[in-house]
Every structure is written in C-alpha cells, then in structure tokens.
Write a structure and sequence with these properties.
Length: 307
Amino acid sequence: MGYGESSVDQRRASWSDGEDAYERDRRSHASHRNEPYRHGDRRKERPRDGSRNRRRYRRSKSPDDAPRNGSTSDDRDRGKRSEHRRRRSRDYDRGGERESHRHRARDNDDEDHDKSGKQIVKRNGPLPSQADSFAVTQGEEPPKPKEKPNYGNTGALAAASNSIIQSDGSKIVLKYHEPPEARKASPKDQWKLFVFKGEDIIDTVPLSHRSCWLVGRELAVVDLPAEHPSISKQHAVIQFRYIEKRNEYGDKIGKVKPYLIDLESANGTILNGKKVPESRYLELRDKDMIQFGQSTREYVVMLAPKD
C-alpha cells in the first residue's frame, strides 16, 4: 500500500508539474502574441482615428471638391515630366527665334551690299531717273532736286495792301484796316457828323456814305482831314460794324452801328469829356461829342430822325 500510494503521489505531482508547465507555456505564448499589440496600441489606434477623420472629411466635402485628392508620387512624377517638356519647348522656341533673327540680319546685310561689296543706297519715294542712277554707279553726285514752290503766306501781300505809294515813290503804311464785320450803315439810318468851332457849324459829314472814316493829318490817306498840329497823321477811326445781339426772347438781332477807335495817337482822343483807351472800339450814340488831340473843334455825331 505504501508503495502504491507513493507512486500515485508521484504521478499526481508529475501531472501538476506538467499542468503548471503547460500553463506557463500558454501564458508565455499569449504574452508573446499580445506583446506587439501592447507596443503597437498607439499605432493601431492612429489608423482608426485617421480613418474616422477621413470619413468625416469626405462627408464634409462638397461634390465639387470630391475629385481633389492629395497628389501621389505618380502625379508628382507626371507633373515633373510635363514641366520638363514645357521648358524644353520654350528653350527650342527661343533658340528658333534667335536663329531666325540671325538669318534676317544676315539677309539684310546681304541686301545692303551687292556682289562687288559696294553698299547699296536705299531711297524713299519714287525711283531715281536713269541719269541719276548712272551718276551714282560712276561715283558722281546726282543733281539736287529743284525747290518746290511755297504757296504759304509771306506777309508781303498784306504789307502791300496796307501801304500806299505816293508820286515821289515813297510808301505810307496804313495803321488800320477794316475788320470782317465792317458794313455800311443802313439807308434808313442817316448818321451825320457836325463839326463845330465855337458855336458855328463849319462842316457836315454824311457818315452813312462809307463804312470807315480815318481821321488825321496825312492828307494822302485820311478820309477826314484835321490840320491841328496836336493831331497825329493817322489819329483815329470812325468804323461802322455789324454786331449781333440776343433779345429777351433769345432771338438774334443784328444791326450796324458806328464805333470809335484811337490808333495809339500821341495826344489821345476824347469822347464826351473822357479820354478813350487806345486800340479799343467804343460804340457811338446819338449826340456824342468827339475831340481829337488838343484841338478846340468839336465833332458831334447825330442820327437823323425817322419819318
């Protein structure tokens, strides 16, 4: 009995040792199996979190943004190849332009020189005559073209029209010429100039017969002579002018009226007791009185009453 019990106990101990060894082996295998998961928990969790984020990003993106994915290495390589091709094409085009410019410059140089090496003279305009061409080939200078007539205003005609030649050959230059608006007075308006010396009327001048009356001491050119030494040779002018004005309704109304202008005389011109400015038109009205220089004679402008 003792031997049998001891054998049973040994067997039980060996079984328990075997079970303990098996349990240890199983636990060691389980620990080795779970060890990469323990070390890679964070790596495993990241893809799960990344996948969640990608799913959320896909849901939040609009349909238009769907095809816009991150560029892969193939896309980058394809983009580099296309960029390289574009650069090569640009370089080729630039090189072709440079070559074309060189050919053009060479052709221009060839055109500028003939076979003998002489430079060809290029001219603008019509071709030269045959004589001129032979003169150039022989080394002679072609004749200069004739000067074309100039039909511009030189001022000589205006000077001649404003001057009067006397019998002795001397010229008298007129200081005044009529403006474009010069007109004769209307036959209905009978303007007259009465010359007073003191209280006596010594002369009456019908102003309506002419459009311009030149007053002065130069008998060869004046229309109304005044012999006082203080009066200039060409002292003043009584000029009839056609002037348009607008009435209260906006309509244009034109009328011919007499005006007085002083020709920069030495002693001036007086109108109604006041000296008039030089080279400026002043309208004359009925019963205006004019005095020239220091002369005591009075020139009164009168408009005849209408019937």
